[in-house]
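Input chain follows. Return structure tokens only.
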Amino acid sequence: MLEFFATLHWGAVLQIIIIDILLGGDNAVVIALAVRNLPDQQRTRGVLLGTLGAIILRVVLIAFAVVLLDIPFLKFVGGLLLLWIGVKLMMPDHGDPNVKPADQLWTAIKTIIVADAVMSLDNVIAVAGAAEAADPQHRLALVIFGLLVSIPLIVWGSTLVLKLIDKFPIVIALGAGLLGWIAGGLIIGDPFIDRWPALNVPSAEYAAHIAGAVLVLAVGWFFRKRGRAAQSNAAH
């Protein structure tokens, strides 16, 4: 054990921890949005299980990071999926009595894991790159260690965002817009887009980010308004 710590590349350890902390903000927003409609007694379980599932999946993705990022259309399709998740998370909860609490919990957990997997397509390459500086025998252990360090921060961040959502509902729209922003970057960052040099400029990248955020907010607002109107009509 002492030999393991003595031979660690502490620079790589520090880089991985910093990367995981910086990337934890996106996870916290997704988790908070996904569990916000759960009963209070299930929110903590949703946060913990969703975080654990996302972390395990991220370790798997890191192992295949370089290969995944070179597959054409993967990021494009992932971006489209993230757009839909952003819209879905803006939907109001009607409290369907036919849906069991356990089903609601697992639905929230699945949403967290899928969204994190999509958002991690770009992020995992940063962690994998930082781990390259370490001894090959230590790389996977370093990645897992860095992710474990980030878990308390993600859980704390999710709890904080949940409190903000309860007090300021506008946070829901801001969180959904963030997912749209990330989705736009994924779509224009797909290797297939490299065939069009005109799109490989900073202005096109910013435009894609903005378009993704606006699209999620516009479509989410439309369905949210329609859902509330249908709920109001049903009440009368």
